[in-house]
Amino acid sequence: MRSKVLVALSGGVDSTAAALLLREAGFEVEGVTLILNPGDDGAAAAAAGKFLGISVRAVDAAGRFQRLVIEPAARVCAAGRTPNPCCECNERLKFALLAEAMEESGAQFVATGHYARTAAVSTAGEAPRIRQGADRAKDQSYFLYRLPAAIRRRLIFPLGEFAKPEIRGRLKEAGWSGWDRPDSQDSCFAVPGECCGDTLFRRCGLPPRPGRFLYRGREVGRHAGIHRCTVGQRQGLGVALGVPAYIKRIDAVSGDIELVTDPAELESRRFTLLRPVWSDGTPPPAGATFDVRLRYRGRPAPARLLGPDGRGWLVETLAPQRAVTPGQAAVFYDGETVLGGGEIGEVLP
Predict the structure, then answer these.
(1) Active-site amino acid positions
(2) Which of 67, 106, 264, 313 is the most buried (most CB within 10 A)?
């Protein structure tokens, strides 16, 4: 009897390829598409399912997406921080719904089109950890660090060993007309021509918090809202100082944004880690050293966990890091294996 796998199917290149590879591997494949945003009718997923010859069911998750992902992300923006909604969505919504649908369908496994892999386990009953995808340029393990053990035990990443050009080639050979669609670079709720913060505030009915740009304590311009700004930002400030200016700090109470012109002033070595999760369920000992990625495309940097204090776990990188951004994820690795992570809280001097 063939094993059944439920595939998260959006109708894009990666999810369609994941379903194709699983079908070719001999699995019984069923698709499920999550309806997250207004105006999404699931047509792309239905078309991909027709091409693949598999059934696809739609799950209306728009209300839960608004409540569990959009509204918390908007609150992070309103606090002068930069949210990472993909990490939250994967834990709280997407994989939770996939697990529910897997049980309802009687499937043994669930699969997605992420460029990631799972690590082999050495102990019976141990949940596999997330590993980086073979294609490091597309690796998405950073966004998956919060996945619980229960889902990791039954999770398949069909694209994990492939590079993106190989995936496109497989779809082209199979005769799928969408094999050369461009990659999406935006979040799934992005609106063309609208920045992420504006979208979040509009969907949640939040008023903007305008304020001053300050340079060396002096007002040098005004901004339309802190939700449009992030630490390290240089473009779109509309400030003329004769040299490039960068955002160093955002004050959510006053609305003031501090600018610097020396990139070295953006560097820091210590920050607090909020809401940490660890793949094996056990916090590492204080003083443990791992590699940490502080943004999706960031290079891993050696860092030391100094242990919890009143503000959260304290993390110290061994070398200064540029524009450590509150609200973003700090994900810890042992080589290519995800050990855990959390949200960057306060950046310390």
Answers:
(1) 89, 188
(2) 313
